[in-house]
Amino acid sequence: MSIPSFDPNAALLRDERLTDGLLTRRVIAWLIDLMIIGVLVKLCWVVLGVFSVIALLVTISIGIVLPLFSLLAIIPVLYGWLSLVSPLQSSPGQAVMGMIVVRDADLGPPTGLQAFVYMVGYLVTMAFGAIWTAVAVVTTRHRTLHDIVSGLVVVRRAALQSPLTPGTMGLNMGPGGARTNYAPNGGGRPFA
């Protein structure tokens, strides 16, 4: 039995495929997510505003309703956290741009705790100035500070769908032994 050898060139090529064009995609995804969060906050603000007027009209103390407006600050955190722990494994903006958030160690799905640390780290990074996200320009796999702290990495979804068994004319064994052909290049991991 032989021990498989590590090929650093193959590892660099794999990393390059995972992160090719990622910085531009992340910026565009951030803008898409910013618009979606803005719409969600605006909708919740309108609903709470209507509820405040109704509360005032039916002589319920408006002091009961006004503190609910502070809950609007939770929307971006819930948006990001729920997106990462969903089967999508990315925010809607990231999904549109063909990205997925995975664990750095084994490219598996993020845990709930990792997703929470990722979101808190993101908010702290933004609170101290978005310039801190520029770390992605010089790090391996273009990771930002909140990526590094949470142990996650953002990669291209298509790059994870590489052939499982090359040379099998695109036929791979899927879950339960069924033959599948997930990726156009001959098979791979399916992602919803």
How would you classify the helix and strand content by structural class?
mainly alpha
What is the percentage of strand-forming residues?
Answer: 5-15%
Strand order within the widest sheet? 1-2
Mean pLDDT: 78
Terminal Cα span: 37 Å
Using brief descriptors, characterize the structure shown:
192 residues; mainly alpha; 8 helices; elongated; disordered C terminus
Describe the fold and architecture.
The protein has 192 residues and is mainly alpha-helical. It has one domain (17-161). 49% of the residues lie in helices and 7% in strands. It is built from 8 helices and 4 strands. A two-stranded antiparallel ribbon has the order 1-2. Strands 3-4 form a two-stranded antiparallel sheet. A hairpin with a 5-residue loop joins strand 3 and strand 4. The two termini are 37 Å apart. Mean pLDDT is 78; it is low at 164-192.
